[in-house]
Design goal:
heterotrimer, A alpha/beta, B mainly alpha, C mainly alpha, B: mainly alpha, ABC transporter involved in vitamin B12 uptake, BtuC, two-stranded antiparallel ribbon, two-stranded antiparallel sheet, 73% helix, 2% strand, globular, C: mainly alpha
Chain lengths: 250, 332, 291
């Protein structure tokens, strides 16, 4: 579904991501792990269009998407969440999800301004669907609260709901469990399975090894910007290079 | 349920603004109250202008210190189209406002990549450039420093010859523009504006073409303010170029911040309070500008939530106490 | 013709540079834009006029007193208004508006204090003109060019060679790190605002004898000064100097050789062109963020 080929990102003299080639298979949860500063988020930013790779390519469903703007990548069917929560804090929870649905809504500037009957119908349906997404992540009780007022864990769930709302084919989750308590992590584990059932492929960066090893079908390990290893969780757990990188890096 | 979630009750939202504007129309029923009526008319057109600025700044978070330029394009555009080409006035008002929207869009295409301070500089420069073109116009089409005259408003031969008549026209304009603003900000487009204000990077990541929506916000805002400019010239019959100095842009912004951003009522309250303040300071003659500056500074330093943000806090406090005393839930 | 234009271009350019320097210093130190520089220049001209013409003090003494007053004003502005607003965590627009309110206060205040007619600023030198390579110029013009250049050189040495200047640059670059090194960041920001006001006041005293002194003297120069700062690279000290002088020259030469109709357009066209096409300015200052 998604393939990167020798993606390299440099900041000045520093090579943050060095010739990384990974493959994400459809209908699977693929994990991207590695010590802090390994370049995981930078790599994500390359896929989602925040950075343009200095070299290499990103191919999604057969099309090159490297160098596209974030909103174009989103429209191509890749949606994401952020490591540092990036919600629209003063908008309410429901509106955040509605913004996520933006690329799927057809109304335009004039139909919005004059509130044409078709726009009205679409909005009504959109509100209903947004509410469904909130139920999906169990936030329906907070629909009208400002997003900024939610607890940390709930804000992470809202980020997931917001990015699911654009009905992506692939979702990139950047440390979805960060800041969650153990109960919330269990719920996340269950939520990830339900996301997969929707037919959405998942690529996630995560530090919580229990979660990663339990749910991911396939893992890629980054260290110092390079792809160190790849394989199934059990292969990774027994890979001496990975153990070395983690012990040496932490 | 979805209805309440959507919060689509336009009627309710418009009650407060319209009630305020109707109250402004009180002088209609007083004989010979020409001056208060004129003020009510001016307030109405300022409400249109400032509501436009609110779409840009309050909702989309983009600053402009050059809105006087759009105001000027509306006033001069409509006057010239009417004077030189004999087109009917309401039509010229729309054409001039559309022209301003196009200018706004063209300005916004490069300006949209600038953030706050530098966007404000770009809009200052834009405002000055438009002013210079007005006072040194090609072929003297704007009559340069002399200012320009135009006819009072008339629609299909019906002349709005008195403030009394014009007041109704102004009220109709305010209702139309506020309704359109309400529809726009509570829609996909409006949500995109707010998302850009809140976090433009996340908005981009959610599939919003940030530049396109910033351009839309600029164009809409320019249309509103330019239409207000056109209302102005066909109310007063004359404009001088010095109406369109940076001071005017700052005035629009001051009104918006006084009343509070991102609402229907905020611009109305802001316009009324600032306009009445300026009018009442006239008695101070030479000290007018000085005292205005000091009051402005005091409000900014003491009440940065806007004048009515401050009032609202006091109100909420009082309402909360009353509510408790009655033993019920909050009064509002 | 050329030489005459060159000199008046340098005169104007020197003034723009001093104003632009204020903008750049303030932006570097506090990430803010002040819209009051031009009016501080007006205030400086009025103060200088008072010391020099009304109190009859020598020019140099008047200049020093004026600069001290302006410095105090600038610091007071930062401590009494800007800092108060920043501590309240307000939107940056309120800071912008506060400086605009202060500019209204100055514009109207000087009219209340000194009257609304243009005041005559007596000439500084006894000669009314001197010859420079066969062109006769006002000696005040030479003073203006010379003094603004001296200011820039002094500023350069102050910022790079003194402990204090180094501390100010450090505070501007990374306030937290500077603070942990024992630098009084708040004081250094205040001094930056004072310094900027001082530079503007010098500009006012230099331009007074040539233009006369009136309430809106600094208003247009103030907003054109932004252009100089942006041309050089907003936030860059040397950029502001070069940008200001280039702006002065551009304005004078275009007016002299092409047309004077659009004299006041040049600065704004340059400003908007640089913002859109080369926002980092000639010195490639990275202060302007892209979105």
């Amino acid at each position: 579904m998604l393939t990167t080929d020798k993606v390299t990102v440099k900041f000045g003299g520093l090579t943050a991501v060095n010739q990384v080639s990974v493959h994400v298979e459809a209908h699977r949860i693929t994990g991207l792990i590695g010590p802090n500063g390994a370049g995981k988020t930078t790599f994500f930013n390359c896929i989602s269009g925040v950075y343009r790779p200095n070299s290499g390519s990103v191919i999604f469903e057969g099309n090159h998407i490297e160098g596209k703007k974030p909103y174009q990548v989103n429209r191509a069917g890749i949606s994401r969440t952020y490591q540092i929560i990036n919600l629209f804090k003063k908008m309410n929870v429901l509106e955040n999800v509605l913004v996520g649905m933006h690329p799927r809504l057809k109304s335009g500037y004039l139909s919005d301004m004059f509130r044409t009957p078709s726009q009205r119908r679409e909005e009504k349906a959109a509100y209903e669907r947004a509410y469904e997404w909130l139920k999906f992540v169990d936030l329906q009780d907070h629909a009208l609260d400002p997003a900024g007022s939610l607890s940390y864990g709930k804000q992470r769930l809202l980020e997931i709901a917001r990015s699911l709302a654009s009905t992506p084919k692939l979702i990139l989750l950047d440390e979805p469990a960060a800041g969650m308590n153990s109960k919330e992590k269990e719920e996340l584990d269950e939520l990830l399975k339900r996301i997969l059932e929707l037919g959405v492929t998942v690529l996630m960066v995560e530090h919580d090894m229990k979660l990663v090893m339990g749910i991911c079908h396939y893992l890629n390990v980054l260290s110092e910007g390079k792809l160190l290893a790849k394989g199934t969780p059990s292969e990774i757990q027994n890979n001496p290079d990975v153990i070395q990188a983690y012990l040496g890096g932490e | 349920m979805q209805k309440s979630l959507a919060n689509n009750s336009l009627g309710k939202k418009l009650i407060a603004p319209i009630a305020i504007l109707l109250a402004l129309g009180m002088p209609l029923y007083v004989r010979g109250a020409e001056y208060p009526l004129m003020l009510a008319c001016i307030i109405q057109l300022y409400v249109v202008a400032v509501s436009g600025l609110d779409i840009l700044f309050g909702y989309c978070g983009q600053i402009s210190l050059g809105h006087a330029a759009f105001y000027a394009i509306g006033a001069y555009g409509s006057a010239i189209l009417h004077n030189n080409f004999g087109l009917p006035i309401l039509f010229t008002m729309f054409v001039a406002a559309t022209l301003a929207a196009l200018v706004g869009a063209v300005l916004a295409i490069p300006a949209s990549k600038l953030v706050f301070h530098f966007l404000s500089l770009a809009t200052v420069a834009f405002g000055e450039i438009v002013y210079q073109f007005i006072v040194h116009s090609p072929g003297g089409i704007t009559k340069d420093f002399n200012g320009i005259f135009s006819a009072r408003l008339s629609i299909f031969g019906f002349e709005f010859s008195t403030y009394r008549l014009w007041y109704y026209f102004g009220l109709a304009c305010v209702i139309v523009f506020l309704t359109a603003k309400y529809f726009l900000v509570h829609s996909k487009t409006g949500r995109a504006f707010t998302a850009i204000r809140e976090n433009s990077h996340a908005a981009n990541g959610m599939g919003i073409n940030v530049r396109k929506y910033k351009v839309m916000a600029f164009a809409t805002s320019a249309f509103y303010t330019a239409f207000a400019g056109a209302m102005y010239i066909h109310l007063v019959g004359y404009v001088h170029p010095d109406t369109f100095l940076r001071k005017q842009s700052v005035l629009f912004l001051t009104m918006l911040l006084f009343g509070g951003t991102g609402s229907l009522t905020g611009p109305i309250l802001g316009v009324i309070s600032v306009e009445l303040l300026i009018e009442s300071l006239r008695v101070l003659q030479d000290y007018q500008g000085f005292v205005y500056g000091i009051l402005l500074l005091i409000v900014i330093v003491a009440l940065p939530g806007g004048l009515f943000g401050g009032f609202k806090n006091v109100w909420n406090l009082l309402a909360g106490r009353l509510g408790k005393r009655r033993g019920g839930a909050g009064a509002c | 013709m050329f030489l005459r234009l060159l000199i008046s271009g340098l005169v104007l350019g020197g003034i723009y540079s001093l104003i632009a320097l204020g903008y750049s210093l303030i932006y570097k130190a506090s990430g803010l834009m002040s819209f009051v520089q031009g009016d501080v220049m007006t205030l400086g001209a009025y103060l200088g006029l008072t010391f020099y013409r009304i109190l009859g003090l020598p020019f140099v003494v008047s200049l020093i007193l004026t600069v001290l007053c302006a410095f105090a004003f600038g610091m007071l502005l930062e401590k009494g208004v800007i800092r108060v607003l920043l501590n309240k965590n307000v939107l940056p627009i309120y800071v912008v508006l506060a400086t605009i309110a202060i500019s209204y206060i100055i514009q109207n205040g000087v009219q209340l204090g000194w009257g609304s007619i243009t005041q005559y600023f007596p000439s500084v030198f006894s000669k009314s003109s001197v010859k420079v390579l066969s062109v006769s110029v006002q000696p005040e013009a030479l003073l203006c060019v010379g003094a603004s250049l001296v200011c820039m050189v002094l500023l350069h040495f102050f910022m790079t060679r003194t402990r204090f200047g180094t501390a100010m640059r450090a505070a501007a670059m990374d306030p937290t790190a500077a603070y942990s090194c024992g630098i009084n960041v708040s004081m250094s920001t205040g001094i930056t605002w004072g310094l900027s006001a001082g530079l503007a006041a010098i500009a006012g005293m230099l331009i007074g004898p040539m233009y006369g002194v009136y309430a809106l003297l600094g208003s247009m120069i103030g907003s054109k000064g932004f252009s100089g700062a942006v041309i050089g690279g907003y936030g860059n000290m040397y950029g502001a100097m070069v940008g200001g002088i280039l702006l002065g020259l551009a304005e004078v030469f275009v007016t002299g050789y092409i047309s004077s109709t659009y004299k006041n357009l040049i600065a704004y066209i340059l400003l908007i062109t640089f913002l859109f096409l080369k926002p980092t300015g000639l010195f490639n200052e990275r202060a302007i963020q892209d979105d």
